[in-house]
């Protein structure tokens, strides 16, 4: 049995992510709006690790990626330097 590993460089993970089936509104809310629903969806998504790696590697500054908000990703980047 062959198990395919998806990496951030392979865009296939994006098509399989729950956000692709949900719509961007939850993941790119208006400033000051809650990201709770986006994080709930991310928490159920098997693609979350690849998504977070992609966001960090590509310096995504807006929206919820891999279950983390902009501020949380910034804090993570600062902590890993």
From TrEMBL:
- Record-linked InterPro entries: 4FE4S_WBL (IPR034768), Whib (IPR003482)
Q: Family per UniProt?
A: Belongs to the WhiB family.
Q: What binding details are noted for the cofactor? A: Binds 1 [4Fe-4S] cluster per subunit. Following nitrosylation of the [4Fe-4S] cluster binds 1 [4Fe-8(NO)] cluster per subunit.
- Obligatory cofactor(s): [4Fe-4S] cluster
Q: What does this protein do?
A: Acts as a transcriptional regulator. Probably redox-responsive. The apo- but not holo-form probably binds DNA.
Instruction: Tell me what organism the protein belongs to.
Output: Streptomyces carpinensis
Residues where [4Fe-4S] cluster binds = 19, 42, 45, 51
This one is known as: Transcriptional regulator WhiB
Q: PROSITE patterns this protein is in?
A: 4FE4S_WBL (PS51674)
Its taxonomic placement starts with: Bacteria, Bacillati, Actinomycetota, Actinomycetes, Kitasatosporales
Share the record's PTM remark.
Answer: Upon Fe-S cluster removal intramolecular disulfide bonds are formed. The Fe-S cluster can be nitrosylated by nitric oxide (NO).
Which Pfam family name is an example for this entry?
Whib
């Amino acid at each position: 049995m062959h198990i395919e590993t998806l990496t951030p460089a392979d865009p296939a993970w994006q098509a399989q992510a729950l956000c692709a089936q949900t719509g961007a509104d939850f993941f790119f809310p208006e400033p000051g709006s809650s990201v709770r629903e986006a994080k709930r969806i991310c928490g159920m998504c098997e693609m979350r690790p690849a998504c977070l790696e992609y966001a960090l590697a590509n310096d995504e500054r807006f929206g919820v990626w891999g279950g983390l908000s902009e501020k949380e990703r910034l804090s993570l980047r600062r902590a890993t330097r």
